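Action item from last meeting closed. Structure (243 res):
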């Protein structure tokens, strides 16, 4: 439409905020989100019930933070709560396969040559995590400094899938979001199991880009794209570790 700003055109596709209050309330074995006293429902029309009070409070805060329009892109915890109820129960085997598939090409297994500064940074950052994975969960990953893809041992891949089979529905929803964003099964599992925190995971996932930015300056478009990813990674880490 001639003369309409991009922001106004985008807002036309978003629902207007229709409530004044967003709070939590006990419901079943968990907590519901109430908008002016009415419970929020998932995309599949289920009542949005969350087991963790901490997560429920954070989801309610997302609803309170919406302004004139409701923007789902600014509500990652709400999205994860929806995925937990609507998708995980139906697609659990598929989600497990998708997560385990990242173990086949995990970024922590691909290093620059050790003579390069990046290779030294990667070795110092990744090797302790790989050793932890070997000892704690029998995940014996093969590492290379070649650009050619490598095959991981079948038993390592089987153990990788078996480990994430132990997740609750909420944990699986969080990992399903986090693993593709980090590009790493190992970093995500290390965060899940408390071996690293979210800041360490974010730093480890960006060694190459950080070094490049230090040498040549930061790409503004790449920085914006990463900032958006980082918000979802932090949300999924919060959801993962508070359920």
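Sequence:
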């Amino acid at each position: 439409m001639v003369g309409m700003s991009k922001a106004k055109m985008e807002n036309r596709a978003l629902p207007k905020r229709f409530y004044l209050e967003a709070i939590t309330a006990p419901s079943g074995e968990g907590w519901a989100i109430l908008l002016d006293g009415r419970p929020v429902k998932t995309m599949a029309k289920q009542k949005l019930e969350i087991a963790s009070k901490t997560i429920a409070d954070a989801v309610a805060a997302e609803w309170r933070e919406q302004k004139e329009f409701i923007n789902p892109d600014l509500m990652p915890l709400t999205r994860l709560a929806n995925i937990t109820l609507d998708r995980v129960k139906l697609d659990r085997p598929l989600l497990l396969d998708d997560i385990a598939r990242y173990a086949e090409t995990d970024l922590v297994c691909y290093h620059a040559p050790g003579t390069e500064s990046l290779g030294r940074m990667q070795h110092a950052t990744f090797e302790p995590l790989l050793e932890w994975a070997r000892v704690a969960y029998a995940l014996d990953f093969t590492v290379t400094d070649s650009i050619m893809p490598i095959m991981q041992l079948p038993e390592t891949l089987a153990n990788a899938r078996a480990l994430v089979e132990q997740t609750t529905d909420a944990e699986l929803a969080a990992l399903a979001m986090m693993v593709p964003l980090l590009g790493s099964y190992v970093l995500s599992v290390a965060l899940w199991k408390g071996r690293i925190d979210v800041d360490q995971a974010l730093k480890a996932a960006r060694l190459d880009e950080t070094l490049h930015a230090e040498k040549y300056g930061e790409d503004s478009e790449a920085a914006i794209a990463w900032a958006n990813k980082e918000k979802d990674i932090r949300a999924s880490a919060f959801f993962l570790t508070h359920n």
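Note appended to the action item: The two ends are 45 Å apart (CA to CA).
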